[in-house]
Design goal:
The chain is α/β, with parallel strands linked by helices. The protein has one domain: 3-Layer(aba) Sandwich (Rossmann fold), CATH 3.40.50. β4, α4 and β5 form a beta-alpha-beta unit. The model has no long low-confidence stretch (mean pLDDT 97).
Length: 259
C-alpha cells in the first residue's frame, strides 16, 4: 500500500485563516506529498491564504477566487483549473454560512431568506462544485465535505445550520451514488466542535466545548489536524472501498445517549 500522495493534486475550498478546518486538511495532504489548489470566497481572503500557504515547505500551490453562490464562478474556476493542471484527484469542501441571528434562539423563527441562504452556501455548494470538479478526476478521485452532529440530532442554537447539514448529508449520499460509476467517491466528516471563524457565530459555543470536554468518550475536544488526517484517509486509496459515508471525528461524542 502506497501512503504517499505525491503526483496527486487536490482542491481545498474554504481556508479563511489558520484555525480553519480546511487548513488542517491542507496540511495533512501537504505532508502526504500532494500538490494543492486553494479556492477562497473573495479577494479579501487572497493574501491571508497565500501567506498561510507560503509556510508549507516546497508546496507549489495554485489559487483561485470562487464564490460558491455563483454558478458561473464555480464553472469558470474548474475550467481554469483544468487548463492549468489537467487532472485532479480530489476536493475538500469546507464551506458553510448562516446569518448570526439564525444561530441562536429557536429554529421556528428562521426567516425564508435565512433558510435559503444557509442551504445555498452550506449544502447546494457541494452539488455545484461536485458537478464541476468530477470531470477533472479522470483517474478517479474523492470528494470530502464537512458536516456536524446538528444535522442528525437537535443541537441547541445550531438551528438552520443543522437543517442545512441534513441536506448536505443527503446530498453527499446522492452524489456518491451518481459519481461512483465514474470512480469518484463522496464522503463526509462530522467534526466535533472546533473554535473557528464560523463557529464564532454560533450562540453559547463555549458551553458546547465544555460539554464535550466533560462528556465525550475521549474527554476532550478535537483538533483541525485530526480532521485533516481523516480527510487524508478519505481522499487517499486507503479508503478506496468507502463512499457515501459519514465519519465522526468528534472524540466519540455522537455515540452518547442519556447520561
Ligand atoms: P471557517 O470560517 O474557517 O471556514 C468556513 C469557510 O467558508 C470560510 O473560508 C469562508 O470564506 C467560506 N465561505 C463562506 N461563504 C462562502 C462562499 N459564498 N463562497 C466560498 N466560500 C465561502 O470555519 P470552519 O469551522 O473551518 O468551517 C469549515 C466547515 O466545517 C463548514 O462546513 C463548517 O460547518 C464545518 N464544521 C465546523 C465545525 C466547527 O466546530 N468549527 C464542526 C463541524 C463542521
Amino acid at each position: 500500500m502506497n501512503f504517499s500522495l505525491e503526483g496527486r493534486t487536490y482542491v481545498v475550498m474554504g481556508v479563511a485563516n489558520k484555525r480553519s478546518i480546511a487548513w488542517g486538511i491542507a496540511r495533512s495532504l501537504h505532508e502526504a506529498g500532494a500538490r494543492l489548489i486553494f479556492t477562497y470566497a473573495n479577494d479579501r481572503f487572497e493574501q491571508p491564504v497565500k501567506d498561510l500557504v507560503s509556510t508549507l515547505d516546497g508546496q507549489d500551490a495554485l489559487f483561485y477566487e470562487c464564490d460558491v453562490t455563483d454558478d458561473q464562478a464555480v464553472s469558470n474556476t474548474f475550467t481554469k483549473i483544468k487548463e492549468d493542471v489537467g487532472t485532479i484527484h480530489g476536493l475538500a469542501h469546507c464551506i458553510a454560512f448562516a446569518n448570526k441571528e439564525d444561530l441562536q434562539g429557536e429554529f421556528v423563527d428562521t426567516s425564508r431568506d435565512g433558510f435559503l441562504l444557509a442551504h445555498n452556501i452550506s449544502a447546494y455548494s457541494l452539488v455545484v462544485t461536485a458537478k464541476a470538479a468530477a470531470p477533472l478526476m479522470t483517474e478517479g478521485g474523492g470528494i470530502v465535505t464537512l458536516t456536524y452532529l446538528g444535522g442528525e440530532r437537535v443541537v441547541k442554537n445550531y438551528n438552520v445550520m443543522g437543517v442545512a447539514k441534513a441536506s448536505l448529508d443527503a446530498s453527499m449520499k446522492y452524489l456518491a451514488n451518481d459519481l461512483g460509476k465514474h470512480g469518484v467517491r463522496v464522503n463526509a466528516i462530522s467534526a466535533g466542535p472546533i473554535r473557528t471563524l464560523s463557529a464564532k457565530g454560533i450562540g453559547d459555543f463555549n458551553s458546547v466545548l465544555k460539554k464535550i470536554e466533560e462528556e465525550a468518550p475521549l474527554r476532550r475536544t478535537i483538533t483541525q489536524e485530526e480532521v485533516g488526517d481523516s480527510a487524508y484517509y478519505l481522499l487517499s486509496d486507503l479508503s478506496r472501498g468507502v463512499t457515501g459515508e459519514i465519519i465522526h471525528v468528534d472524540a466519540g461524542y455522537n455515540i452518547l445517549g442519556l447520561s
